[in-house]
Amino acid sequence: MVATSQVSISDTKLNIDDLSGGFRRKNNLAGAVVIFVGNVRDDHPGGLSLTLECYVPLALDRIDMFIREASSRWDLLSVTIHHRTGKMVPGDEIVFVGVASAHRRDAFFAAQFLMDHLKSDAPFWKKQSSSAGSHWVVPRAVDYQDKKSWN
């Protein structure tokens, strides 16, 4: 069971230093703290922006469900997830996931589980725009395979 969890979805820029430092301070007695930060990649010539949209109440419920599932599989002390929406450019942070546990194995597995589910099953819609036009991004087959590996 997770002792504490915090989830937020916002269109404001994530302050990773504050989030990371705060999560580590809050969990300073944990045996393991794993922090994952997902960024907008810079791998598209001609400029790029990424716009993320979501229906916040549904997304919060779904993320809470992912945390409950992770907590039933591993011994977790704390989970924090902050997800950004709105328009972003390469280098901007999209998501912060922090997991604290007594042991590294639980923290690493839970963080990967949460990201695999966020990537494939959270109700976020991504629109990628460049000088060549724009299109909606769908999860790749490997993203679904990663999520399925937890079944």
Oligomer state of the chains in this structure: single chain
What's the level 1 CATH class? Alpha Beta
Decide which structural class fits the backbone.
alpha+beta
Q: Strand order across the biggest sheet?
A: 1-4-6-2
Write the H/E string, N to C.
Answer: EHEEHEEEHEEH
Question: Characteristics of this structure?
Answer:
single chain; alpha+beta; Aldehyde Oxidoreductase, domain 3; four-stranded mixed sheet; 151 residues
Question: Topology of this structure?
Answer:
Elements: E1 4-10, H1 16-26, E2 32-39, E3 49-54, H2 56-73, E4 76-84, E5 86-88, E6 93-101, H3 104-121, E7 124-130, E8 133-137, H4 141-148
Parallel strand pairs: 1-4
Antiparallel strand pairs: 2-6, 3-5, 3-7, 4-6, 7-8
Describe the protein's architecture and organization.
The structure is a single chain. By secondary structure, the protein is of the alpha+beta class. The chain has a single domain (4-148), classed as Molybdopterin biosynthesis MoaE subunit (Aldehyde Oxidoreductase, domain 3, Alpha-Beta Complex), CATH 3.90.1170.40. Helices cover 36% and strands 36% of the residues. The chain is built from four helices and eight strands, in the order E-H-E-E-H-E-E-E-H-E-E-H. It has helices at 16-26, 56-73, 104-121, 141-148, and strands spanning 4-10, 32-39, 49-54, 76-84, 86-88, 93-101, 124-130, 133-137. A hairpin with a 2-residue loop joins strand 7 (124-130) and strand 8 (133-137). Helix 2 runs antiparallel to helix 3 (104-121) and helix 3 packs across helix 4. The radius of gyration is 16 Å and the shape is globular.
